[in-house]
Amino acid sequence: MAYQHILVPVDGSEISYAASKQAIAIAKAFNCQITAICLVAEDPFSGADFYYNASMMKEYLEEAQKNALKALDQVKQFAATEGVTVNTEVVKGYVTAETIIETAEKQNVDLIVMGSHGRKGFKKFFLGSFAQDVLNQTTLPVLIVKE
């Protein structure tokens, strides 16, 4: 199967960068489009039991945006070394598997490449598996990179 458009979510972790390098290699091999996204929660305190002020929220959003752009710039650098152009987007909303899937559908991608930390046991139970959620909730092909 020849891929036309790959989506790779990144969060600044080493495993997400490993996934982006794999996506770049596939994009290069198939001469296809690649889009890297970074999710930023618009209201990370929703459901919290404390009140927060506007300046705290503004500070969070500025820092989150800065970190997202930094992660996406790193992916652009990886792609440039391979002669691949990558589109980037900061996606604001909920940091969920559903947001990745909605973005993939909106972007009309035919492959999602993402990293998985490979948590097991209690860590998986308490922290969940973001990659597993994406895999279970989409009909699109998903490539999981573990290292």
UniProtKB/TrEMBL annotation:
> What is the protein name stated in its UniProt record?
Universal stress protein
**What InterPro entries has UniProt attached to this entry?**
Rossmann-like_a/b/a_fold, Universal_stress_UspA, UspA
Q: Which CDD domains match?
A: USP-like
What species is given as this protein's source? Acinetobacter defluvii
Sorted alphabetically, the keyword list is: Cytoplasm
Annotated UspA domain residues:
3-146
> SUPFAM superfamilies given for it?
Adenine nucleotide alpha hydrolases-like
Cell compartments where the protein resides: Cytoplasm
Q: Which domain of life is it from?
A: Bacteria
Keyword Cytoplasm part of the UniProt annotation: yes
GO cellular component labels: cytoplasm
Which Pfam families does this entry report, sorted A to Z?
A: Usp
